[in-house]
């Protein structure tokens, strides 16, 4: 929650972390987008998540789902399948998470929040999930892939060290929600841009980092200090044919 909120602030958004059911009606009118992250899912929080997603959907606000460790337990998988019925605008996960939620069954060998697959292995699952749910689906990894079920965009910004900081996936999903809030009618492009900007912040931050802890700090600083010139010269977003999904320079 710390990294997610700080990434949102550095990116120019205004986060509020809310768990309580009685607060949803008060918060919803003030939101431009909602993020549901099941990282620390509990029986007590699930009804709030369902109610918040329903309130967002009812009022035409985009909401974004991060299915953290969806394959690790039946409880998480069933919660995600219920949440999917409330029509998220975007779903962002690592490859194992997207394969699990797309197949509506737990990936064998899944041990938790980290992926045991490459993003390119999840492209068919991502497309199928996008078509069945109506959401834009993003799979992150060495190359980030974003699809609406037809088009595929590939983002190659980022550094491997991002995997060594907990909640970078959660944080980039939060940034996606902020970008989608600005251009809700262009969720595919907003998602690709958020992934590219986050990855670029990682690249810039890595230049002055010694390891995960300093990268965590420098990532936030880089995002905060990023100007238009840095974005336009640094982002790497391409349309990709399905047959050509390997990382490119
Ligand atoms: N090998 C890699 N090279 C560059 N960037 C990466 C690599 N692996 C992950 N990332 C980046 O790290 C962030 C978190 O992605 P990921 O590790 O897939 O999510 P999660 O933390 O949910 O498992 C994303 O911005 C992604 O692009
Ligand atoms: C370690 C852990 N356990 C529950 S949530 C969480 C963080 C997951 O973050 P990410 O999906 O960004 O790796
Ligand atoms: Mg994750």
Automatic annotation (TrEMBL):
Any GO BP? thiamine diphosphate biosynthetic process
Pathway noted in the entry: Cofactor biosynthesis; thiamine diphosphate biosynthesis; 4-methyl-5-(2-phosphoethyl)-thiazole from 5-(2-hydroxyethyl)-4-methylthiazole: step 1/1
Q: Which reaction does it catalyse?
A: 5-(2-hydroxyethyl)-4-methylthiazole + ATP = 4-methyl-5-(2-phosphooxyethyl)-thiazole + ADP + H(+)
Supply the source organism for this entry.
Spirodela intermedia
Q: Does the keyword Metal-binding apply?
A: yes
Q: Name one Pfam family in it.
A: HK
Enzymatic class: transferase
One GO MF term attached to the UniProt entry = hydroxyethylthiazole kinase activity
CDD domains linked: THZ_kinase
Keyword annotations for this protein, in alphabetical order, are: ATP-binding, Kinase, Magnesium, Metal-binding, Nucleotide-binding, Thiamine biosynthesis, Transferase
Q: Which EC number applies?
A: 2.7.1.50
Keyword flag ATP-binding: yes
HAMAP family associated with the record? Thz_kinase
Q: Which cofactor does it need?
A: Mg(2+)
The name of this protein is hydroxyethylthiazole kinase
